[in-house]
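Why do we bother with holo predictions? Because pocket geometry can differ from the apo form. Keep that in mind while you read this record for calcium ion.
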Amino acid sequence: MRPHRGTDVLEVLVVEDDPTIGGHLHAGLRAHGYAARWCRTGDSALAHARQSTPDIALVDLGLPDTDGLDVTRALRTDHPELLIVILTARADEIDIVVGLDAGADDYLVKPITLTVLLARLRAHLRRQPPGAAGIAPIHLGDLVLDLSARRCLLAGREIDLRPKEFDLLTALARRAGTAVTREALMAEVWHENWFGTVKTLNVTMAALRRRLTEESAGDPRAIVPEITTLRGHGYRLETPSLGTAG
Ligand code: CA
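The structure, written out:
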């Protein structure tokens, strides 16, 4: 069975500077059905996590630019739901305590086999399935995205979106009011199984906009967040201003 969340493959952010270990993890995770993103520095990992929403982060402590503990703290602050596993050669008791206190869910000492790592991830996911109950719906004007049920409601009426339309809207809604690059959307919605051109994003975006426009036409008073195109960059879902209702 492929590890997934709804119709989505789970994304693992691998933060590892060692080329052998990083390459092994990246290839191994992908071979086992995860979408893996490999970042070799703490800064690039945090930049990626700001644009995407990984489900799991594997964090090495000895990184070239910043300490893995700082990366762990920053990831925990920005992503309360993220499963964070520290993967390091540091095996001292104090390191383990500090690592877990920094916000990691688990602390594994290298060397560790891929088989054991995958079993640990499965054990965590059984207890804490990403995207399951506990994730609050996103409210934007009269639009509600219920992520755990994968339902989209406009003024109480259900909009039947296609899976990628729902994922695209979710990716924008999670960062409502901020610009999201096309690359980030492609990585998040289509993961690394992305062999298409940017056309696929355009087509899905057009379909999503059409659905929202059609639905709002049936209820002119409904407040529907608009998606603004940022030329040469990406998109921004506007935060509907309250007080314009009625
Ligand atoms: Ca390292």
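Residues 17-18, 60, 62-63 surround calcium ion (CB under 6 Å).
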